Amino acid sequence: MRLLILGGTSEASALARALVGDPRVMPTLSLAGRTIAPVLPPIPYRIGGFGGVAGLVDHCRSQAIDALIDATHPFAAQMTDHAYRATAQCGIACLRIDRPAWRPEAGDRWINVADMSAAVRVLGDVPRRVFLTIGQQELAPFRAAPWHHYLIRSVDPPPPELLPPDATIIAARGPFAVEDERALLIAHRIATIVTKNSGAIATAAKLAAARDLGLPVVMIDRPASPPMATVPDVAGALEWLEARHAASIRRGV
Ligand code: NAP
Question: pLDDT (tens digit, 9 = 90+) per residue, 185-227?
């Protein structure tokens, strides 16, 4: 089976590792190329966009792809939409790994919002010290609220033209520990955290630290996904692949 994995998440990397040495699968991992030094997988990989739905259709046809697993970030809504539409056009099996979203616990002070602009509005007119952990692509809306101080953490330093004027940058890749997150929040006298509900274990420690310190968290809710077959984790994706292998044997292919 020729399998295309759309990556950028720890689940995509774990799936790639799990498939090493399985003679039934010829996997390729596709990365968007968002980070300067991505964690490279132990399987064949490609980096960069396909060129929209049409480009992904061409890629699947030219590479004789049999199945696609979309293990992109929960906020990579465009890529997921393209995967859904391209696989439907090609008649290729498609599965999404959609890790569970974080859920508030007792003591959490979450303010749920739909998008970045709403997050900016929630911060209000009074200057605050804000910890932004939203990646580096969607910082521009915060330029509309230049009276806040922003502590911005992303894997690579963000492009300067996206930054609000009063910003401190930390380039770091998770996982992060709760004690370190608490120390960071205290050291920078953070009053509010803004984050996307990625559901990632590696970056959940800031939520526990915010709970300990009684800090509000502006939580950006996930975009909607197309109605595709979905599993919550890599184990589910491996079961899906096993079922496809079993079905191929029954069909004698
Ligand atoms: P997106 O808006 O869904 O995708 C934009 C375009 O990037 C896609 O149309 C596609 O280009 C290309 N692309 C995305 N993922 C790809 C992949 N795995 N392989 C090949 N091309 C890919 O996604 P995004 O711009 O990457 O990010 C959107 C949100 O996801 C942001 O909030 C970001 O912080 C978050 N996020 C993304 C990643 C990641 O690795 N992509 C990681 C962490 C967080 P074409 O149309 O040309 O095919």
Answer: 999 999 999 999 999 999 999 999 999 999 999 999 999 999 9
In a 13 Å sphere around the CA of 248, the CA atoms on its Cβ side amount to 13
List residues bridging with 113 in a β-sheet. 220
Cα of 252 vs centre of ligand 1, distance in Å, is 37
Q: Strand, helix or coil at 235?
A: helix
Ligand 1 within 6 A of CB of 51? yes
> In this structure, which residue's CA is closest to atom 40 in ligand 1?
8
Backbone angles phi, psi at 156, to 5 degrees: -115, 155
Q: At what angle do helices 234-251 and 10-19 cross, to 10 degrees?
A: 40
Is the C-beta atom of 31 inside 6 A of ligand 1? Answer: yes
Closest to 77 measured CA to CA, from 198, 224, 195, 194: 224
Q: In whole angstroms, what is the distance from residue 198 CA to residue 73 CA?
A: 7
Answer yes or no: is the C-beta of 11 below 6 A from any ligand 1 atom: no
